[in-house]
Amino acid sequence: MVSHGAAELSRTGALAHRRDQPVLTIEPPKGRASINWGELWVYRELLYFLTWRDVKVRYKQTALGATWAILQPVMTMIVFTVFFGKLAGLEGRTGDVPYPIYVFTGLLPWTFFANAITNSSNSVLSSINLITKVYFPRLIIPLSAVGVSLVDFGVSCVVLLGMMVLYKTAVTAQLLLLPLFLVGTVLCAAGIGSLLSAMIVAYRDFRYVVPFLIQIWMYVTPVIYPSSIVPERWRWVFSLNPMAGLIDGYRAALLGTPLQWGPIGLSLAMSAAVFFAGVYYYRSVERKFADII
Amino acid sequence: MSAAPPLPVERPAPVDTDPGPPAISVSGVSKQYRIGGREEAYRTFREALGDLVSAPLKRLRNGKQEAPTFLALKDVSFEVPAGQKVGIIGRNGAGKSTLLKVLTRITEPTTGKIQIRGRVASLLEVGTGFHPELTGRENIFLNGAVLGMTQAEIRSRFDEIVAFAEVERFIDTPVKRYSSGMYLRLAFAVAAHLEPEILIIDEVLAVGDMQFQKKCLGKMQSLGQTGRTILFVSHNMSAVTSLCDRAILLDQGRIVADGRPEAVVGQYLSSSLGSAATASWDDSEDAPGVNGFKLLSVSVRTRGGEPTAVFSVEDELKVEIVYRTTLPEIRFRVNALLSTQGTCAFVCVEPTEMVRGEPGVYASTVTIPGNLLAEGEYILGLSVFASRGKKDHLCRVEEVLSFQTYDPVTGSSARGDYTEGMLGVVRPKCEWRLERRQ
Prior knowledge:
The structure holds two protein chains of two kinds.
Chain A: H1 5-20, E1 23-26, H2 37-42, H3 44-61, H4 67-87, H5 99-123, H6 128-131, H7 140-166, H8 178-202, H9 209-219, H10 235-238, H11 242-255, H12 261-286, H13 289-292
Helix pairs in contact in A: 3-7, 4-5, 4-7, 5-7, 5-8, 5-9, 5-11, 7-8, 8-11, 8-12, 11-12
Chain B: E1 24-34, H1 45-62, E2 69-80, E3 85-89, H2 96-103, E4 111-117, E5 120-123, H3 136-146, H4 151-165, H5 180-192, E6 198-202, H6 210-225, E7 229-233, H7 237-243, E8 246-251, E9 254-259, H8 261-273, E10 278-280, E11 293-302, E12 310-312, E13 317-325, E14 330-340, E15 343-349, E16 354-356, E17 360-368, E18 376-386, E19 392-406
Parallel strand pairs in B: 3-7, 3-8, 5-6, 6-7, 12-19
Antiparallel strand pairs in B: 1-2, 1-4, 8-9, 10-11, 11-13, 13-17, 14-15, 14-16, 14-18, 18-19
């Protein structure tokens, strides 16, 4: 025994090390789906890399690169200004804010939201090779798709800055609230995106629902028109749409229009609710992804 | 072919004291898939809505109906002590891949429990997450992140990875312009440098050229020597016997053998090919042969006369050819052809054309010495003819039966303690002598 002392010691040292290692237990799923936030945090670099990959690939493959992120909202703004602002006469309903910048401040977050849910709803199906080959928290996939749209949003904000200078928009202290509305939009987009992506895995015909959904959703959101055209007693119903209050919030932050905390608060709460509903649904379907796809 | 330094084959002596908690412990794991049933397969929302209405009606009419299920794994239990290298073998569909998918958390088990101690890296397919548009450098970071490495870890091993993959010059080229060999090397390099405590590998060696396979095997061997636990699924029996300390044989989702790799590999080969040890024909018109010759049976046997289809490369084997002659006084010779790897390895010719006098049943047996055949599958062909004086063709069958040879890598075969790939359709044990001349 004595002669083996040294070896024994180093071996028990190694054993102690091994005993300290976290034990991963794999068991059949039971009960309701839960979200392992800690694990998501551990995998944050993967989220970053998947986002980075998609941004990089997109800008590598397209001729116009980042210009796309700018062109889309700018063109839409011009068309909306001519048709809805001038011809339909919405110009007079936006108070003292010029219609082009009014519509643009709504279009930017809307474009971000619409692109985010389009990208993330298709994200799971297009990541089959990852899902069936390697483990990581599956929520990363729709989240990284939202991340890609967020980068585009950042790029197109440059145009917004230019327009704000052009129209000599006064910056108010409300600008500090911008991150709050951004977080709300990200939560809402992530919730809807993961919900749709999981539904598309389970029911493939949901793919055709997404563009239609986005179109309808835009019309019930104050992108082209101010929410003041909605009668006061219906405003709360209107604000159940999380994007309605959020876009009013963006305008208040960027253009200094009056903040109406009631509808905005309701929309923020709805964003959080949509987020949790979406990711929990996603988690409950997620365990079957590798078997269904 | 340039030879890499030979790898030692000695295995760690079994430790009889408490080996500590196992690295992997699998208890009673089953995995059920629904087949045919619509439940698990994707479907359309319209159908789902339709089912909501029609399913209760159907149930009323037919009683409760279960979707047909399929158990890919049935009550699988085993433990892997830390540092052990385990080969998992079995036919396609035996449940090997499902087991790995459950172990790597790609899919969840239906019942049972698995406990894993230590960081796991899985390599179920090289290049998972590679994007063709990105450069080699970008893909290293991306793939590393997919496999669970942090950016700092990847950065610290970046040069090593690039050197292993031998892609230094092309590191900033999009991988879509890589040759398939470069692509594979890079992908394997990232995974091999993950440095996990537990490495799970599925058939990586099925791809790539010889050189690449050797490199992968070498890397896995060196990972194994640093005390890593390796779980290795392969169809390459030589790789399993040379790399692993233990093999587990799966058949129809169950563990049917678990033990030393040579024994388990032997059992696998004989169970899957046992029926090929003998080929026989009813003594009828269908039997091959003309002009008074009818083939009755051909078999491969051990030295002791037992029919078997699996031989160690060191063992002698006998080929027994039994036939009936229906004419008196016919003269011919029997030839056996052994082919492997798509080419004829050699021919065994009966040394003289003998006359079979009385019509009756005869048996010609040829003995093939041990330490002659290479590892792999041999196909036995037969031709019976006369070429002296009156020329005659009596029988010709190109593929009568096949058998397997394996190298137990005990050190006494022709490969000695060399464990990597060896070319050639035969592998005679030739004598080497080393002497000092000056």
